[in-house]
């Protein structure tokens, strides 16, 4: 006997939401990793003076894979572009899936997916301008800033999706709402961390640290970055003890806040070593940039969890799926 069409559609649709949720969670988690890698590879490209290793754009020496001209510098620039291209494709898939299943997903998800895709298009345009504009400092800084906003946004989306999936329909079983002061602290930390990263990007794009250490020029950028480091560190560290005052059931937020607190002293030490070594060891400088990107991802995760807790919108599921 053949299965009735209506029954077939019902069975298929009842299986689809859990699969869609799993795919979206997997995709956003991979995107966060890929975006952090994009920032780090971009930093390594600058440190190794490989920003113009591929003199044309979007190809490299007129081909997709410049095998005959491949060396470390060309590889860094080429791989940086490849990672950006793959991120763009993944965000396009993310947007398509979010709009296809929008009736069963939180209302904010398709719109934030669209915003992420717009940011990656802007990021690609700025990447092209960094090459055609011969690494103009404002363009390089804007390129980094857009990448960090993508890290912040995708990390927040991933955590907000987790929060939505954990939301329970019975208000009696839900955790108390977050206090207003928590959002003020999270906002302060986000502004300070992003501002510090942009200061570092502006300093790096002008080679200010190198010029200051070598000839005493451009030292004001280095001074601003060092002063901003303490403000960003205090703003980040403050979240950890403050999270202990949150209502019960916010263990994930506490974990994220303490993860940030653990990274801050390591980041400060890496910054000190970078200057003590006079930027002579690229691995230390790149590690400093890696931790900066991870801090941005963590503050984005804090924001995603926090906003998801304000007005949770659980994923829809058919009764057959919920009750087995």
| Overall domain count | 1
Radius of gyration (CA) equals 22 Å
Number of helices, where a helix is a run of at least 4 consecutive DSSP H or I residues:
11
Low confidence ranges: 1-17, 168-174, 318-324
Query: Class by helix and strand content?
Result: mainly alpha
Taking the sheet with the most strands, its summary is: none
Terminus-to-terminus distance: 25 Å
SSE series: HHHHHHHHHHH
In percent terms, what proportion of residues is strand? under 5%
Total beta-strand segments: 0
Q: Could you characterize what this model shows?
A:
The protein has 324 residues and is an all-alpha fold. The chain has one domain. 75% of the residues lie in helices and 0% in strands. The protein is built from eleven helices and no strands. Helix 4 (137-166) runs antiparallel to helix 5. The radius of gyration is 22 Å and the shape is flat. The model is unreliable at 1-17, 168-174 and 318-324 (pLDDT under 50).
Describe the secondary-structure layout.
Blueprint: H1 5-47, H2 72-100, H3 108-132, H4 137-166, H5 180-205, H6 208-215, H7 219-237, H8 239-243, H9 251-276, H10 282-310, H11 319-322
Helix pairs in contact: 1-2, 1-4, 1-10, 2-3, 3-4, 4-5, 4-10, 5-7, 5-10, 6-7, 7-9, 9-10
């Amino acid at each position: 006997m053949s299965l009735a069409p209506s029954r077939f559609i019902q069975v298929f649709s009842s299986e689809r939401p859990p699969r869609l949720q799993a795919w979206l969670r997997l995709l956003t988690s991979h995107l966060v990793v890929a975006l952090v890698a994009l920032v780090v590879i971009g930093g390594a490209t600058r440190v190794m003076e490989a920003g113009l290793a591929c003199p044309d754009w979007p190809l490299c020496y007129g081909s997709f894979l410049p095998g005959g001209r491949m060396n470390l510098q060309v590889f860094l620039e080429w791989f940086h572009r490849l990672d950006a291209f793959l991120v763009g494709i993944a965000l396009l898939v993310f947007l398509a899936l979010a709009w296809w299943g929008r009736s069963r997903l939180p209302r904010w998800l398709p719109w934030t997916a669209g915003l992420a895709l717009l940011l990656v298009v802007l990021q690609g345009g700025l990447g092209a301008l960094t090459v055609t504009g011969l690494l103009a400092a404002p363009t390089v800084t804007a390129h980094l800033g857009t990448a960090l906003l993508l890290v912040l946004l995708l990390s927040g989306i991933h955590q907000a999706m987790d929060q939505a999936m954990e939301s329970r329909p019975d208000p009696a079983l839900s955790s108390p709402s977050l206090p207003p002061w928590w959002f003020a602290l999270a906002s302060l930390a986000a502004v300070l961390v992003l501002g510090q990263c942009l200061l570092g990007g502006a300093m790096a794009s002008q080679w200010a640290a190198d010029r200051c250490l070598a000839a005493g020029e451009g030292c004001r950028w280095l001074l601003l970055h060092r002063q901003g480091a303490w403000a960003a560190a205090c703003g980040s560290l403050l979240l950890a003890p403050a999270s202990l005052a949150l209502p019960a059931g916010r263990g994930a937020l506490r974990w994220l806040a303490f993860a940030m607190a653990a990274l801050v002293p390591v980041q400060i030490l890496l910054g000190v070593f970078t200057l003590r070594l006079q930027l002579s060891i690229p691995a230390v400088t790149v590690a400093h940039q890696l931790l900066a990107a991870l801090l941005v991802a963590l503050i984005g995760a804090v924001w995603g969890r926090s906003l998801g807790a304000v007005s949770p919108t659980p994923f829809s599921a058919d009764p057959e799926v919920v009750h087995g």
